[in-house]
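Hey team,

Filing this mostly as a record. A colleague (T.K.) asked me to run one chain through the structure pipeline before their review meeting, and I want the input and output archived in the tracker in case anyone asks later how it was produced. No errors, nothing strange. Just documentation.

Input sequence:
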Amino acid sequence: MKALYFNRFGDSDVLEYGDIKIPNIGENDVLIKTEYIGLNFADIYRRRGNYHIEDNQPYINGYEASGQIIKVGANLKENLLGKSVLFVDVPFANAEYVKAPSDHLIMLPNGIDTKKAATIGLQGLTADFLANNLGQNKAADNVFITGISGGVGQLLSQILSAKGVYVSGSVSSKLKQKAALSLGANQVYLNCDKAIWQPKLISKVDTVYDGVGSTLAESISLLKNRGKVIFFGMAGGKPENIDLIDLLTHSKSILTGDLWDYLTTFEERQFRSERLFKLISDGKIKTSEPTIFPLSEGKAAHDFLESGKNIGKILLKTD
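Output structure:
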């Protein structure tokens, strides 16, 4: 089978595309013919060598893809064959065929094709967990999302808007601003104008969702007393040290969490994905068209993601 792989850590030049062996499956596994593979910032960190990656020779990146089941293990029912599925936490996804434990599968309903599923995928489940487990915002709350035009930001914005939350956020370009507004955000600010709009928001926001990291101190400054920052990523670098006494003085909180502490069973995966799919079916969530690269052009896809020019999801497509 064809796969995107690398033998040493480094920049995108280490990536190679070629033939490797199709994996053997166990009695509780399935073999999936992938169609669309999600590319995420974590894959960039893994390729650089500063994020966990499964030990393998060669290294094969990726944990998220959609496709069809073409083989099942001895303990599984034959009626799984041909089913369209999504997975978000199975290693070695950057390949034409992937072995997946059956309890890590997300079964796709009618009306959600593999392209749509991969576009939502990990970012959608992350947004669901942030909104429903950490944020728990109610109607009329004032919420701010850093990087609101990104994969998580787009979906999180719409999940919150469906609850009646007032949603604003920040972006790096006018094109991203337009995209975020088209998906229902109430107000979207340009980072280049931060000196103008940021002072006006200080102490005005109930919740800030911060996936940038380096903006954490700024996010805290936007909070009302008793407000909270939901800290969920470091796309822009690590945050500076935070004065906990200052937080205590103003009754402000920082909440963090790992999706994998909430996505622990087949039933949990199915429940959360069905909640997302229903929002899509009801027209409450829309997705911008993903940027798609052939798996063979994985280097170009990595470069594009690192450039910061993407709006929404980047997918790799197998032949």
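Quick notes for T.K.: The domain at 138-257 is CATH 3.40.50.720 (Rossmann fold). The chain has nine helices and 16 strands.
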